[in-house]
């Protein structure tokens, strides 16, 4: 007959978390433990080497990269495991740090931010 410990191990081996799809592999969390310089981010492919983007945090660069891929705020939130409200806050900070004002009716701030991310020179 199995010991109690063996029965618990057997029962626990079949259990899964209902959030198993949200758990990131450990290797993706190692770099998050320490801040990286802009040059490290640029060389790792996380951010393009643009002077205009040096003022953004690593998380803001992740949000901007997903914006450049055409993702909606909800899709960005899903991929980064954050709330949609947090995405809105990050995008607002991106606009502010890139000096993209909301008063101008002729340009769309989201498009302007993505263009600054994708193009080596700022758009005039």
Structure characterization notes:
The protein is mainly alpha-helical and 124 residues long. It has a domain at 56-124: Orthogonal Bundle (Arc Repressor Mutant, subunit A). 52% of the residues lie in helices and 0% in strands. Helix 5 packs across helix 6. The longest helix is centred in the last third of the chain and has 14 residues, at 84-97. The relative contact order is 0.10. Residues 29-36 and 41-49 have low confidence and may be disordered.
Features of the shown structure:
124 residues, mainly alpha, Arc Repressor Mutant, subunit A, 0% strand
Order of helices and strands: HHHHHHH
How would you name the CATH homologous superfamily of the domain at 56-124?
Answer: Winged helix-like DNA-binding domain superfamily/Winged helix DNA-binding domain
Helix segment tally: 7
Q: Give unreliable regions as ranges.
A: 29-36, 41-49
Distance between the termini: 77 Å
What is the CATH class designation of the domain at 56-124?
Mainly Alpha
Main sheet record: none
| CATH topology grouping of the domain at 56-124 | Arc Repressor Mutant, subunit A
Average pLDDT for all residues: 75
Strand content: under 5%
In helices, the fraction of residues equals 40-55%
Shape: elongated
Report the strand count: 0
**Protein structure class:** mainly alpha
The Cα radius of gyration reads 20 Å
Q: Per CATH, which architecture of the domain at 56-124?
A: Orthogonal Bundle
């Amino acid at each position: 007959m199995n010991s109690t410990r063996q029965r618990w191990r057997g029962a626990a081996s079949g259990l899964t978390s209902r959030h198993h799809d949200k758990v990131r592999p450990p290797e993706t969390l190692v770099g998050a433990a320490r801040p990286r310089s802009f040059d490290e981010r640029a060389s790792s492919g996380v951010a393009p080497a643009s002077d205009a983007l040096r003022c953004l945090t690593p998380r803001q660069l992740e949000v901007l990269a997903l914006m450049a891929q055409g993702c909606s705020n909800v899709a960005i939130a899903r991929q980064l495991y954050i709330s949609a409200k947090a995405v809105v806050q990050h995008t607002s900070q991106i606009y502010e740090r890139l000096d993209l004002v909301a008063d101008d009716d002729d340009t769309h701030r989201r498009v302007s931010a993505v263009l600054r991310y994708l193009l080596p020179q700022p758009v005039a």
